[in-house]
Amino acid sequence: MRASLVLVFCAALLSMAGQLFAAEMIGREGCVTCHTSMDHRAMLPHDMQDEDSCEMCHGPGSDHMDTESSKDIRTFKEKSLDALDEANDVCLACHGGAVERHWPASSHQAAGVGCADCHSIQHPGQPRPDASDMSQSCLSCHADIRSKTLKQFGHPLRHGQMQCKDCHQAHEPPGEAELRQITINDNCYTCHAEKRGPFLWEHEPVFEECTICHDAHGSIHPGALVRRAPQLCQQCHHQPHTRNPHSDEFYDFNPSARISRSVLGESCMNCHSRVHGSNHPSGLNLMR
Fold first, then answer.
1. pLDDT classification of 248: cutoffs 50, 70, 90
2. pLDDT (tens digit, 9 = 90+) per residue, 34-75?
3. Cβ neighbours around 6 below 10 Å, total
4. How far, in Å, CA of 258 to CA of 274, rounded?
5. Phi, psi for 225 (deg, rounded to 5)
6. What are the residues whose beta carbons fall under 8 Å from the beta carbon of 206, sequence distance 6 or more?
7. Backbone Cα Rg of the chain
8. How confident is the model at residue 12 (pLDDT cuts 50, 70, 90)?
9. Closest alpha carbon to 105 in 165, 168, 171, 164
10. More confident position, 243 or 206
């Protein structure tokens, strides 16, 4: 019992000492005394334009002002897990709406990514100063996707006509791969509504998932296809068929194959032009 009382008394003393020597708020004027080019109050939301605006995110600055050490202020640059969680909690204290509420369970959070790794602290809503747009922040980590965006065919991401956030939501929405919609197809239909249907004659892989045939991030094949026709088509249509006897012939550099009018230019889509689906009464083979 006596040992327990001693522990409680020591804990109380430590708490009182922490309060006695805790850092104090110095106000915005104290910060801009040294950080003359960092007065971003005018860029902050109206509810943060007060004398404590800097310290609302960076914490009390009296110790930092005395020692001029970055260890005595929150810099958002520390990469330890504890510091990362603390920094993210500061952001989520204000940015905890419908978009950001899933962040604590997100794959980015689990991978040790902090809010400040993608967003500029001094310029809310904008990417980091070393990124021309938000997509550059994404591609700085996702190098495999960056290489795909440089290929000839695909979405105009590298030309600045769209950004990663048009399809993905980095704060973990309900869709897989951080997609904005529940399914990949629903995400694609946001822009490509004409491919949604319903069609009288449906092409099964189109109904199942767009990425069976297309690579959304970029491809060396026209239409961002994962392979060039007819090899793409023959991944599924490779069995002998009485109505389409040419579908079992592999045209991949096969000089003995019958190059008939049905595969003119070695592309099935020269005839089967309605490959996403057809509403024509005679469109069973997606030719009309």
1. low
2. 777 665 555 565 455 565 677 778 888 777 777 767 667 777
3. 10
4. 24
5. -75, 150
6. 195, 213, 275, 276, 277
7. 29
8. low
9. 171
10. 206
Residue 222 near residue 153 (C-beta atoms within 8 A): yes
The number of beta carbons lying within 10 Å of the beta carbon of residue 1 is 5
Task: State whether residue 36 is helix, strand or coil.
Answer: coil
Write out 81-101 in H/E/C secondary structure: HHHHHHHHHHHHCCCCCCCCC
Q: For residue 225, what are its two tokens?
A: 């296809």
Give the residues across from 201 on adjacent strands.
278
In this predicted structure, what is the pLDDT of residue 13? 47
Distance CA 128, CA 138 (A): 11
* C-beta of residue 170 within 8 angstroms of C-beta of residue 118: yes
Phi, psi of 232 (to 5 degrees): -60, -50
Residue 121 has pLDDT above 50, yes or no: yes
What is the model's pLDDT at position 48?
A: 59
Q: Give the angle subtended at the CA of 116 by the CAs of 110 and 119, to the nearest 5°.
A: 110
According to DSSP, residue 102 is labeled T
Provide the CA 184 distance to its chain's centre, in angstroms. 14
Name the token pair of 170: 């980095």
Ranked by mean pLDDT, the top range of 160-164, 253-257, 260-264 is: 160-164
As a residue count, the chain comes to 288
Amino acid at 170: A
Q: What pLDDT was estimated at residue 17?
A: 41
274 by Cβ neighbours in 10 Å (0-12 / 13-18 / 19+) ranks as middle
Q: How many CA atoms lie within 13 A of 132 on its CB side?
A: 5
